């Protein structure tokens, strides 16, 4: 039983990181119906940047004072989020916006091309080897304070939740409560009408990419601090996990993406633990195919079902 | 612009006399029409003949004349026998993917799965992998040699069947999905197949259902990450030729032989009823269905037939290299073939062949050569050969943006890609292109010889209307009004 709970906790932290990336997929798909294939690689770029900032620029070690550690990590998160957001907007400008009126498969192919470009740039600049850092957090079990020793929640796992949950709340608030968020929802529903109502569609789409990129960057930082390793082709596998999450929850639906990510995090964790890590990818793809074939609207998705 | 007025009415009058004058006019036209057709035909025949001669004699030319020529005059390396064989293999793959993506308009991002299935078919049926049994049939090994050893000529049809069956199996539940979802599902399939081949090296299970009990202990089904080797090379019994990697240019001819069959097959498919149904589906699935095309069956056929080409390519690749592992079959291979199709001209067989040859050359000869040169000058500089997919990614993005129809485009496909984003607009765009072409032709003809041009212009209006081709008539009318 303890083992199952432990696996569940691992799955939860996996799922929270997936959620940040999945939101990028679902935001973009919701607004321009593009499977942004390069999004996973943007996440990888984020984790690479975090690696260089943490280990080479700021030279953080497990011995760094906690205050400094927290401050530097906040700076790194902000810097990487900004950078990936800008990269994502640039990609949209260069590779997707000129294709907005092309057949739907053209931007998808362009996105695949972009994915390879990002991957190879990372390979070119950082090299093909795994990039790993030391675990910067104390390794004590947070639950030992409550007298539980058989199940562990580490600082790393808590850190994942501390970063991702506020971001998820902030995003929901932004989309639901602000004027820009309303513009995004309007554009997602019907870009032409939104344009007639005075929404600057190009700007709104750029904003969507900006937000998606920022979330991917945050996920990248969290990823390297949680798993302590990154590599140039991480984005492909991770991106497909996140995309599967978005599809599972109902693509285009924000809360759906989070739910899907949490479910997929568990699928990953339990498959790793009880089957074999070799099979996890195949299982994720099987889930993806199964959802697309049998319930393309996903768990929560309804809105986009009739927009085919 | 010159203003020419013509009678819109039947220029030949009515009745027997009118008909006779019409026939006379057509007959008078015949030499011109014939000559034009002949010129076109002859030009095409000549270029094809030259191409075939070049291809067939390439090995001799390469080893003797061209090698020296290239070193002095044209300082780029020529593809060697391995690369040319891979050009043939990728040519077959590109033609197969072109059936799926070009003819039927279904984006398949997991095409490599069928390539893997073909390769593993060859590995299972022509190697010592099943060492505990011995089946030797018409193969180039001694009787009683462990493992199954069937000749390549039997493996190819089996690979076609296996790949085609899996294509249909994948297609059956997924083909009603929309284009981008289908792309992702095929991608998933393309990733699952190599994973399955990699992981089924040590299978232990115990399965009971009522009185039935099936169990296995450490069963090595697929060779795992080491793959399967050696695989028997294709062997031509009477001529005593072995087509393996050390046989020089012999495998090139084997590949060429299979490629020519693939080309003929694909060309005939394109012009058949199925080919027209594919194009109808690609342009407007709903309209095609209304016109009585069984869309699911037709798409399934595209998937299965396209997959079977990859099966052939895979069995040839595995037999030629004599080994296969799951590492050969990655997502990037699927994308490489997709780039060949897009670069050459999606929908056009000659275009995708050009794409396959060009990209294989760049990938396997040009970039390694550049890499070598760079390493000599600056050893610390990154080797371009390792970053081939940086180039290919840029090619994909740039092609989509600047020339989505490829370098040798299929005209109809080009219309669809030229900004015709809703299904309804595709038709309008084709009309537009037809009209523009017709106008351009008319203008050129009018400049050359106004009166003759107008008389030579296609069928007379009356006939065009009679054949129901009102569009052509309108175009011509518009053109005449210029």
Describe what this molecule looks like in 3D.
The complex is a heterodimer of chains A (308) and B (482). Chain A is an all-alpha fold and 308 residues long. Chain A has one domain (2-137, 146-232). Chain A contains 11 helices and 2 strands. Chain A has helices at residues 2-32, 39-57, 66-96, 105-126, 155-177, 179-189, 191-196, 201-227, 234-249, 254-275, 277-294, and strands at 131-132, 229-230. In chain A, helix 1 (2-32) runs parallel beside helix 5 and helix 2 packs antiparallel against helix 3. The radius of gyration of chain A is 19 Å and the shape is globular. In chain A, 52% of the residues are buried. Mean pLDDT of chain A is 88; it is low at 304-308. Chain B has 482 residues and is mostly helical. In chain B, the strands form 3 sheets. In chain B, strands 1-3-2 form a 3-stranded mixed β-sheet. A two-stranded antiparallel ribbon of chain B has the order 4-5. In chain B, strand 4 (203-209) and strand 5 form a beta hairpin. The model of chain B is unreliable at 1-8 and 449-482 (pLDDT under 50). The interface between A and B is large, with 46 and 45 residues.
CATH class of the domain at 76-375 in chain B: Mainly Alpha
Q: Give me the Rg of chain A, rounded.
A: 19 Å
Strand order of the largest sheet of chain B: 1-3-2
How large is the count of helical segments of chain B? 17
Give the H and E element order of chain B.
Answer: HHHEEEHHEEEEHHHHHHHHHHHH
CATH architectural designation of the domain at 76-375 in chain B: Orthogonal Bundle
Class computed from helices, strands and strand pairing of chain B:
mainly alpha
Beta fraction of chain B: 5-15%
């Amino acid at each position: 039983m303890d083992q199952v709970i432990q696996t569940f906790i691992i799955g939860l932290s996996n799922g929270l990181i997936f959620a940040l990336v999945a939101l990028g997929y679902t935001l973009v798909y919701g607004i321009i119906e593009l499977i942004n294939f390069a999004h996973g690689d943007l996440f990888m770029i984020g984790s690479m940047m975090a690696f260089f900032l943490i280990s080479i620029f700021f030279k953080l070690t497990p011995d760094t004072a906690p205050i400094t550690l927290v401050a530097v990590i906040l700076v790194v998160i902000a810097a990487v989020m900004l950078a990936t957001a800008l990269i994502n907007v640039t990609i949209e400008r260069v590779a997707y916006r000129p294709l907005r009126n092309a057949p739907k498969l053209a931007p998808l192919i362009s996105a695949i091309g972009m994915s390879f470009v990002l991957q190879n740039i990372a390979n070119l600049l950082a090299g093909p080897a795994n990039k790993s850092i030391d675990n910067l957090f104390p390794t004590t079990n947070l639950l030992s304070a409550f007298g539980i020793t058989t199940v562990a929640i580490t600082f790393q796992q808590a850190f994942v939740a501390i970063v991702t949950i506020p971001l998820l709340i902030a995003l929901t608030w932004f989309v639901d409560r602000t004027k820009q968020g309303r513009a995004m929802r309007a554009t997602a529903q019907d870009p032409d009408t939104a344009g007639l109502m005075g929404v600057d569609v190009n700007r709104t789409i750029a904003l969507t990419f900006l937000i998606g990129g920022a979330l991917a960057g945050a996920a990248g930082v969290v990823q390297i601090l949680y798993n302590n390793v990154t590599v140039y082709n991480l984005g492909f596998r991770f991106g497909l996990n996140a995309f599967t999450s978005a599809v599972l929850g109902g693509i285009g639906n924000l809360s759906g993406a989070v739910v899907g990510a949490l479910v997929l995090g568990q699928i990953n964790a339990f498959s790793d633990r009880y089957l074999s890590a070799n099979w996890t990818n195949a299982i994720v793809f099987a889930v993806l195919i199964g959802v697309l074939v049998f319930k393309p609207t996903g768990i929560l998705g309804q809105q986009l079902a009739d927009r085919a | 612009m010159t203003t020419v007025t013509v009678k819109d009415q039947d220029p030949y009058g009515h009745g027997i006399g009118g008909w006779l004058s019409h026939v006379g006019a057509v007959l008078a036209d015949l030499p011109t029409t014939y000559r034009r057709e002949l010129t076109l035909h002859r030009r095409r025949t000549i270029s094809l003949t030259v191409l075939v001669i070049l291809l067939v004699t390439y090995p001799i030319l390469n080893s003797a004349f061209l090698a020296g020529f290239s070193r002095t005059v044209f300082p780029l390396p020529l593809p060697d026998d391995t690369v040319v064989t891979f050009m043939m293999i990728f040519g077959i793959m590109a033609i197969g993917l072109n059936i799926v993506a070009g003819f039927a308009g279904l984006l398949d991002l997991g095409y490599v799965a069928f390539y893997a299935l073909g390769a593993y078919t060859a590995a299972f049926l022509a190697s010592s992998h099943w060492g505990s049994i011995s089946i030797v049939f018409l193969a180039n090994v001694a009787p009683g040699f462990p493992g199954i050893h069937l000749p390549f000529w039997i493996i190819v049809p089996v690979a076609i069947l296996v790949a085609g069956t899996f294509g249909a199996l994948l297609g059956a539940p997924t083909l009603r999905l929309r284009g981008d979802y289908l792309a992702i599902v095929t991608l998933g399939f393309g990733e699952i197949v190599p994973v399955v081949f990699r992981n089924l090296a040590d299978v232990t299970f115990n399965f009971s259902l009522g009185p039935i009990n099936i169990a296995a202990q450490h069963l090595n089904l697929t060779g795992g990450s080491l793959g399967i080797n050696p695989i028997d090379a294709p062997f031509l019994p009477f001529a005593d030729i072995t087509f393996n990697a050390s046989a020089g240019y012999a495998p090139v001819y084997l590949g060429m032989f299979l490629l020519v069959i693939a080309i003929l097959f694909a060309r005939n498919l394109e012009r058949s009823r199925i080919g027209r149904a594919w194009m109808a589906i690609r342009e407007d699935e709903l309209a095609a269905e209304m016109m009585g095309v069984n869309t699911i069956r037709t798409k399934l056929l595209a998937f299965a037939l396209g997959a079977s080409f990859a099966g052939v390519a895979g069995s040839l690749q595995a037999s030629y290299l004599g080994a296969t592992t799951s590492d050969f079959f990655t997502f990037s291979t699927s994308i490489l073939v997709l780039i060949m199709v897009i670069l050459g001209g999606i929908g056009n067989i000659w275009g995708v062949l050009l794409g396959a040859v060009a990209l294989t050359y760049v990938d396997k000869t040009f970039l390694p050569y550049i890499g070598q040169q760079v390493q000599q000058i600056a050893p610390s500089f990154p080797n371009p050969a390792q970053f081939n997919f940086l180039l290919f990614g840029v090619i994909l993005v740039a092609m989509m943006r600047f020339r989505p129809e490829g370098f040798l485009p299929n005209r109809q496909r080009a219309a669809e890609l030229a900004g015709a984003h809703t299904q309804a607009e595709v038709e309008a765009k084709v009309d537009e292109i037809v009209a523009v072409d017709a106008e351009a032709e008319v203008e050129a003809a009018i400049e050359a010889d106004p009166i003759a041009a107008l008389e030579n212009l296609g069928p007379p209006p009356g006939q065009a209307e009679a054949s129901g081709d009102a569009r052509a008539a309108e175009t011509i009318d518009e053109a005449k009004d210029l």
